[in-house]
Amino acid sequence: MHFDRLVKCVDEWSASRDRRDVFAQIGPSQYVPRFIKYTKFIAPLEFKQTIIRADLIVAHAGMGSIISAFESGKPIFIMPRRGDFGETRNDHQVATAKRFAAIPSVHVAMDERELTEKLDHLDLLWMQDNEMLSSVNRQWVACPYSHDKMVSTWPNAATNVACPHLLKAVEAFIEEKLPLNAIGL
User: Fold this and answer.
1) Beta carbons of 92 and 40 less than 8 angstroms apart
2) Beta strands at 23-25 and 142-143: parallel, antiparallel or unpaired
3) DSSP codes of every residue in 126-144
4) What is the tens place of the pLDDT at every residue in 50-103?
5) Domain limits, the chain
6) Which of 68, 66, 67 is nearest to 51 (CA)?
7) Directed axis angle between helix 4-16 and helix 112-120, to 10°?
């Protein structure tokens, strides 16, 4: 489904800040970026390589995007798709964004204004994330329903919803590596 609000926001932010280092996979967006480099879709391997080369990720609040950021050790700025705007069938991404708002290196913006403000402070946020997560030993997160499969092998819809078992698995992983009570949460 399209996410024109996010694509347009990042494109306009990049243009107004003269950022020429932004690349986007825009999917079926109807908005055509005028400033950033983009493609509609990229193959999974190229996507993974693009994530590895990136300094940070800006994405919808899908579990696949969040897990990709965790796996690659990259900070992520997420803005949830909304059902009332026809960007998704319901507000499950709003629920996901709210759940992950307290997690270090996940920066939640509920709308375009908030995303622009956070992007304007990305250098400071990135530095804080690096300090907080410098001692975290990143590992793969396994699905509790199939311990033999790692998250990176899930190219299916299970990673794109705020399913409770996946949220618990990610939260348990983070709690094990960086106890939330250690950072005042």
Assistant:
1) no
2) unpaired
3) HHHHHHHHTT------EET
4) 999 998 999 999 999 999 998 888 889 999 999 999 999 999 999 999 999 888
5) 4-136
6) 68
7) 40
| CB contact at 8 A, 149 and 142 | yes
Give the count of alpha carbons within 13 A of 129, CB side only.
Answer: 21
Tokens coding 11: 């494109």
Could you tell me what percentage of the chain is helix, strand and coil, using 3-state DSSP and rounding each to the nearest 5? 50, 15, 40
Q: Which residues of the chain have pLDDT under 70?
A: 130-185
CATH number at 4-136:
3.40.50.2000
Helix (H, G, I), strand (E, B) or coil at 99: helix
Residue 156 CB partners (closer than 8 Å, separation 6+): none
Expressed in angstroms, the distance from the first to the final Cα of the chain is: 34
